[in-house]
Amino acid sequence: MGESGEAWRLVGTPRAGGILVVSDHASNRVPADIDLGIAPALLDCHVAVDIGVAGIGERLAARPGFAAFLGNVSRLVCDLNRHENEPSVIPIASDGHAVPGNALDHAGHEARIARFHRPYHAALADLLDREPPGLILSIHSFTPHLETRPDEKRPWHIGVLYNEDRRGPGVALDLLRQENGLCVGDQEPYSGQLLNETMNRHAEGRGRLYFGVEVRQDLIADAAGQEEWANRLERVARGVLAHFA
């Protein structure tokens, strides 16, 4: 499996100039000593994990030139794609579901950040410095509709997210739009200018080539869908990397 920590795991062998997949929300794991105070079934829902992204990341990491750095704790325990000073980094509610176990005092909040958030980002920063990739591919997934907004459908099959750096995202959008039958969103279902913490810190903040994607969860909930989208994202990622070679 490679290197790992409590908050992250590395799959495959990263290499300088290759493609590193980063998925902050790849796990629904809750450590045994943490009680979130929620129904266990909620851990299989989008509020706890980006459904399907671990399977895509693992499939890509098995291919030449790829590796995957995957979050290894539920976003309800600690949201690794939020700044550590944001209240939502340890959410007390998500899509209408209360998380009573996250009503922490200052010491408890700080301990959670020190245990998960900081080691995750320190390990990612170290990896990127040791084996600088030619491209970072950030993979998330999104629910077809929020429970709090059941009538607001999200038609996109995939969205490309970014903040200010459009180099990789621009090429990725062009390549995805060439794929037959895809509904492709540019900054959908929300803007990467609002939610892009990990890439802001480790990619844009360091001038590294990257693009982020959000894949609709019903398309990648099973092995067949994950294989299909791993193949698609491999084509697009290799195309982006080749464009800037």
Automatic annotation (TrEMBL):
Keywords: Hydrolase. SUPFAM superfamilies: Zn-dependent exopeptidases. GO terms for molecular function: hydrolase activity. It holds the Pfam family FGase. This is N-formylglutamate amidohydrolase. It comes from Novosphingobium nitrogenifigens DSM 19370.
